[in-house]
Amino acid sequence: MALIDVHGLERTFAVRRKEGGRRRRPTTVRAVHDLSFSIAEGEMVGYLGPNGAGKSTTIKMLTGILHPTSGDLEVAGLAPQRQRTELARQIGVVFGQRTTLWWDLPLRDSFDLLRRIYRTDPARHRANLDRYVELLELGDLLDTPVRQLSLGQRMRGDITAALLHDPRLLFLDEPTIGLDVVSKGRVREFLRVLNAERGTTLILTTHDLADVEALCDRVIVIDHGTSVYDGSLTGLHRHGGSTRTLVVDLVDEAPPIEVAGATTRDVSGPRQWLTFPADTSAAPVVAAVAATYDVADLSIQEPAIEDVIRELYSHGSPGRA
Ligand SMILES: Nc1ncnc2c1ncn2[C@@H]1O[C@H](COP(=O)(O)OP(=O)(O)OP(=O)(O)O)[C@@H](O)[C@H]1O
């Protein structure tokens, strides 16, 4: 059974734009248009699109903050616009850019306030808190005021806060933005464990393709308010013909590297940039380079989501895969 069902969803905004001097004429912005999809319990879905595509507007409608102009919408068997309080018990929301914790309170007190707000059973709260504190390594930080936490620590606190009432569905908006590589990895690993252990459904909005790669079996791409692709990330890469880049630092300068499966695009001193199709594994290319050349360092650059989507259009026929 679907946990989220969206059919023919529309949302418009009336805006007044300045036109030559002081005259303002009302116009209508169509933020979401004829949007339909359904998400089953336990899925991990990337909800992607360029700036202004309508992602936030969709999420606000799914969480009951905004009312649709028209169309059908059901989340966890509830109508978000009419049953917002009941829905709040079923969902959790994490924003990378702002915290839902109390700035001056120790983490522990924020968590306790949330228990009262959600009226979570104390034993269940305790069990959840113990589990998440262990998984997210928050034990030493529980008595620290939120304002003294690093971004990565605060994010782990925010994720815990969103989960203490056992939501079936977790919305994550840029959950790894600004985090270092280690913290990003920790957040991603935690979300994988959460999904495997509890079957929590994850809807992830991000501009970081590595988040999607690590977590999402399925991506929905929206543009101009409507779904333009719904399928696997590999399928998205294949449609768009997008590439990843292997950055190779050689011990010494050398002519352009020649290995099967990759093309050398640029050389600058001992550093070379090789591209290969994003829907194939990097392992054979890395192995071939390492077997033939003296390598000091290697790293892989993912394509930007915006580039993947742009490519999707330039190759035409976005759709399902
Ligand atoms: N309250 C509002 N009033 C008027 N227009 C709005 C409002 N909210 C969103 N819009 C417009 O609706 C469109 C979709 O915006 P939305 O914030 O949903 O996009 P987004 O995909 O979340 O973008 P981003 O990645 O930049 O956050 C944009 O053209 C935006 O300007």
UniProtKB/TrEMBL annotation:
GO biological process, alphabetically ordered: response to antibiotic
Localization: Cell membrane
GO cellular component terms given for this protein: plasma membrane
InterPro entries membership: AAA+_ATPase, ABC_transporter-like_ATP-bd, ABC_transporter_ATP-binding, P-loop_NTPase
ABC transporter domain boundaries: 15-249
UniProt entry keywords in alphabetical sequence: Antibiotic resistance, ATP-binding, Nucleotide-binding, Transport
One Gene Ontology term of the molecular function aspect: ATP binding
PROSITE patterns xrefs: ABC_TRANSPORTER_2
Source domain of life: Bacteria
Name of one Pfam family that matches: ABC_tran
Membrane topology: Peripheral membrane protein
PANTHER family registered for this protein in UniProt: ABC TRANSPORTER ATP-BINDING PROTEIN, ABC-TRANSPORT PROTEIN, ATP-BINDING COMPONENT
Protein name per UniProt: ATP-binding cassette domain-containing protein
Species: Nocardioides euryhalodurans
